[in-house]
Design a protein that fits this description.
The complex is a heterodimer.
Chain A: H1 5-8, H2 18-28, H3 47-72, H4 77-110, H5 117-127, H6 135-150, H7 163-174, H8 176-179, H9 204-216, H10 229-234, H11 246-258, H12 264-284, H13 293-296, H14 300-307, H15 318-338, H16 346-379
Chain B: H1 3-9, H2 25-30, H3 35-59, H4 68-90, H5 92-98, H6 100-103, H7 109-117, H8 124-154, E1 156-157, E2 160-161, H9 184-201
Antiparallel strand pairs in B: 1-2
Helix pairs in contact in B: 1-8, 3-4, 3-5, 3-7, 3-8, 4-5, 4-7, 7-8, 8-9
The chains are: A mainly alpha, B mainly alpha.
Amino acid sequence: MDKIKPTFSKGGKLGFLESTFDAFETFLFVPNTTTVKGAHIRDCNDMKRTMIMVVLALMPAFLFGCWWTGAQVGLEGFRAFFYGLVRVLPMVCVSYIVGLAIEFYFAQVRGHEVNEGFLVTGLLIPMIFPVSTPLWMVGLSTAFAVIFGKEVFGGTGMNVFNPALLARAFAFFAYTPSMSGEAVWYSNWTMMGAQVDGITGATALERLASSNADVLAGKIDVASMGYSPLDAFLGMIPGSFGETSTLAILIGGAILLFTGIASWRTMVSVFVGGLAMGYLFQALGVTTYPAWWHLIVGGFAFGAVFMATDPVTSAQTNKGKYIVGLMTGALAVLIRVVNPAYPEGMMLSILFMNALAPLVDYFVVEANISRRKKRVKLAK
Amino acid sequence: MSNNMKYLTGPFSANNPVIVQILGICSALAVTVQLKPAIVMALSVTVVTAFSNLVMSLLRNGVPARIRIIVQLVVIAALVILVDQVLKAYVYEISKQLSVYVGLIITNCIVMGRVEAFALGNKPWASFLDGIGNGLGYGMILVIVAFFRELFGSGSLLGFRIIPESWYMTEGGFYSNCGLMLFPPMALIIVGCIIWVHRSRNKDLQEK
């Protein structure tokens, strides 16, 4: 490795590929460069290790998604898991290849290092898409998200919006029929004896909304999501590939919190915000089902654990994290309940709060400055 | 290149009203869902800018500076009403699609901007050419945006089907139109891309 390095350095034969070489070298080995200027926290973690921890934390939800994809089409045990894995791997590959190709290209043109942010994004994207999404849509959405969500703003660490969610939002608005409805949540590949014909089913969230409307109209007595709360918690409900199992997501969340990568402030306040808004609606009589159902259906848990805690797009100050978290949760439930066009509000609410996070940070910092100024005046 | 040619061709690229001066964005987002209305809109704006420039240039020595804005508005409004009537008479369907945006040419910054900035200080022929140039420069962007939006949003161009029906998912194919193209935000992103490409080719336009 060290022998071929000079070939790729400035002035070397393949000097124009410096970024690419650097990316692979630091991916495989701990880099030997150290920070020389300024004060830095000494820590054995660099961004690559951080990102790999997030990928690890995503694994429980990913593995569950594989099994559940197979189980939905009538397979059992390991065969179900294998079927799901084979089904989703092309999506993962497409999202990685498209995203990394764009990242490498931009890094090379600009002479930046290639960063590992996309390792996480590339895995998140297939997990928040319905499993039957055509591959070209995954690729196009990834390209859109990486170019317009990330590179336009200056690459990793500069993005205003979470790239994975941006990909989902692009696909949702551009190809609505493939992203919502009854049939898209199931795999449509006939292999290994899967029964794929004619299985459809609305997500628990959609059923919740429609049955709630029926209760309010007096047609039925009790609202239901069509699945037991335990099924919803374990993840045995239709939904995007990796978002159904609240349990698996919480295991991932625990890994993130234990390693200190994600902020518990954001995570907790998203849940609190969503729950508070849910109880408010319940008290007002707008919803007739228990408020905590909101937390176990749809992408709420996934968004709270993996999306809202994104260190780049979330608020930077501690107080800001509480505020942004609470508002994300509250907005998600607000959109779910009040806007009939979008049964799932988590995506829109996180993107919206991404846009507002710098503003919240600004006011938190300003408030701190004015408080300190007052203290100075009192001391005088 | 003679001065007159510069007036005519300058707004096509180096001094484009939409992508360099960032004027007239509103209508560029609103009327570009399909190619046909975009072309009609482009021609209408060209006619209005050209003739309002011509008329104001002819009047430039007789109009007191204090009331010049009112006079400009009268001239522009009269021209826009003329264009509106012509559109209603000959291309009624498209005129209906364009709806209020024909009337809103009056408030298009490009028209008033060219009259203020150019016609009041230049001779009629030069002003006329400048009006045509700016109208066409604006129209060019409109047509490019509408081309992409109609092709990827509806799968057709000028109403003719380009992407075969059999490709669509509803017909058993693999393709699906990009619904986002029908929304104005996508038009803004396309305009952004045009600016991106344009700036990277014209280094002198890049901000430091």
